[in-house]
Design a protein that fits this description.
alpha+beta
Length: 363
């Protein structure tokens, strides 16, 4: 389901009182040899909004960010920032801050000096540079390490310095290209939350490129799912997950069971349950055999000696776990259950499976 989407614009403003600007990517096309990296991409970012681009490798998300940054030319289309067409403008004149996967810090400069670097290029006075750099290092939570060199900092601390450096120049737009993928899981979650806090506080319009679904859903005001140079769907994280517009989005974002079903009057019947459709308008005729996409959390598994299912495997994931059930006709179903139930759902246990009546997509 597409339709109109209302976007809540963050009210954050940076400490200089500036707010984010509107960004529009209009009909962007970019080809590399036989590969169409961008195929008529259209995307709007509201002032102060954080939009995450998500998709498989080669879908065009990084190319879109590089075109916006001015690091990549576009074959056709426009880049409009704050109502101004900057398509032909050099990257150095676009007033954008960037944070990459690689920290890209100068090893011979301290954290403070690294953050000051962009301000030095803009010929800011020494006192102003020091004040601004110190303020940004405090903002990202490492003010106490201002005098350390990159090799004296952890990966997470180095990425915080890179973020502080990007923010120090007070950019109109902040561009984040896989900024957390080189970090370990715990640090990645901490810095992810910190980036979102800072972005809301500063109010800078931000484009965040990632291949990590959890990351995109956790930090973004809206998520754009890309495929082959186009946007399949753009919307709030909850809409992307719960009401996917296409089978690709339903299959790509989160886990889905692919179950046999039959259409019946605007719904689908699968495993004895009648499930509403995410988009009844796109459904084929009644009585059609279809493949139904059902989330693991919409599956309930109950131990039952007379059940026709058998537990094949169980994976402990902390508070929640996943169990795989084999049903007749070689149908496999993955369910998400509370980990306290694993003792009763050990491999080999006979079970029955029940589906909750939640909106369901078709493959």
């Amino acid at each position: 389901m597409t339709g109109s989407i209302e976007v809540a614009t963050p009210a954050g403003a940076d400490r200089g009182g500036r707010r984010g600007v509107e960004v529009r990517l209009e009909g962007l096309r970019r080809r590399f040899g036989n590969v169409q990296a961008l195929d008529g991409l259209d995307l709007d970012l509201a002032p102060g909004e954080l939009v995450a681009l998500l998709g498989p490798s080669g879908c065009g998300k990084t190319t879109a960010l590089r075109v916006l940054a001015g690091l990549e030319d576009t074959d056709s289309g426009q880049v409009v920032v704050g109502g101004r067409d900057i398509t032909a403008l050099a990257a150095s004149r676009r007033d954008m801050g960037m944070v990459f996967q690689a920290y890209s810090l100068f090893p011979h400069l301290t954290a403070q000096e690294n953050v000051e670097f962009g301000l030095r290029l803009r010929r800011r006075q020494a006192g102003e540079r020091r004040r601004r750099a110190a303020e940004m290092l405090e903002l990202v939570g490492i003010g106490a390490h201002a005098g350390r060199y990159p090799n004296q900092l952890s990966g997470g601390q180095q990425q915080r310095v890179a973020l502080a450096r990007a923010l120090a120049i007070e950019p109109q737009v902040l561009l984040l290209d896989e900024p957390l993928s080189a970090l370990d899981a715990k640090v990645r979650v901490q810095l992810r939350d910190e980036i979102r806090r800072i972005q809301v506080e500063v109010g800078t319009t931000t484009l965040f490129v990632t291949h990590d679904q959890e990351e995109a859903l956790a930090v973004a005001d809206r998520v754009g799912v890309m495929r082959e140079g186009r946007l399949e769907q753009v919307g709030p994280p909850s809409e992307i997950y719960l009401r996917p517009a296409t089978p690709f989005v339903a299959d790509f974002v989160g886990l889905s069971n692919r179950l046999p079903g039959r259409l019946a009057t605007g719904a689908v019947e699968a495993l004895g349950a009648r499930l509403p459709l995410v988009d009844p308008r796109s459904a084929p005729a009644d009585a059609s055999e279809v493949t139904t996409l059902v989330r693991p959390e919409a599956v309930d598994v109950l131990a039952d000696p007379d059940g026709v299912g058998r537990i094949l495997a169980a994976s402990f994931l902390g508070p929640m776990s996943r169990v795989t059930v084999e049903l007749p006709d070689d149908v496999l179903v993955v369910a998400q259950v509370a980990s306290v139930r694993l003792a009763e759902l050990a491999p080999g246990t006979a079970v029955r499976v029940r589906l909750h009546e939640v909106p369901t997509a078709l493959a």
